[in-house]
């Protein structure tokens, strides 16, 4: 389950950098929970082709994160905002933290 969440986050941050074909197949696996066989039949490629494409996409998305660190920064900001909310008793501060979290 944790791997799927990680894949989803990576896709949220860097998915637009994949080709349209890669995005479509990756979304079917990660977001739509389709089997490799279902996707292969729909896309007209082999099951192994789908598997290889997913592995390449995973590697590509991980490489983007290792270079850009957007997901890491997002998690750090979110964690710090949660700490601010816990430490503050000011309603205005908590509202502002909630607003920022919602925008993230």
Helix/strand layout:
Elements: H1 2-14, H2 20-30, H3 36-43, H4 47-68, H5 70-87, H6 91-103
Summarize the structure.
This protein has helices at residues 2-14, 20-30, 36-43, 47-68, 70-87, 91-103.
Structure keywords:
DNA binding; 104 residues; mainly alpha; RNA_pol_sigma_r3/r4-like; UPF0122; DNA-binding; UPF0122 protein BEI59_28695; 82% helix
Give a structural overview.
- The protein has 104 residues and is an all-alpha fold.
- The chain folds into two domains: 68 residues, Arc Repressor Mutant, subunit A (Orthogonal Bundle); 35 residues.
- Helix content is 82%, strand content 0%.
- The model has no long low-confidence stretch (mean pLDDT 91).
CATH architecture of the largest domain: Orthogonal Bundle
- Mean pLDDT level: 91
Order of helices and strands: HHHHHH
CATH superfamily of the largest domain: Winged helix-like DNA-binding domain superfamily/Winged helix DNA-binding domain
Number of strands: 0
- CATH fold-level name of the largest domain: Arc Repressor Mutant, subunit A
Nearest-angstrom radius of gyration? 18 Å
Tally of discrete structural domains: 2
- The top-level CATH class of the largest domain is Mainly Alpha
Bin the helical content.
over 70%
Task: State the major sheet.
Answer: none
Question: Given the C-alpha coordinates, what overall shape results?
Answer: elongated
Number of helices in the DSSP assignment: 6
């Amino acid at each position: 389950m944790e791997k799927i969440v990680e894949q989803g986050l990576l896709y949220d941050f860097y998915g637009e950098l994949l080709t349209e074909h890669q995005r479509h197949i990756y979304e079917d696996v990660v977001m739509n929970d389709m089997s490799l066989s279902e996707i292969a039949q729909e896309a007209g490629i082999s099951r192994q082709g789908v598997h290889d494409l997913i592995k390449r996409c995973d590697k590509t998305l991980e490489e983007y994160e290792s270079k850009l660190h957007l997901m890491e920064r997002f998690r750090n900001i979110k964690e710090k905002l949660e700490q601010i909310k816990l430490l503050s008793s000011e309603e205005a501060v908590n509202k502002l933290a909630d607003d920022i979290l919602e925008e993230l």
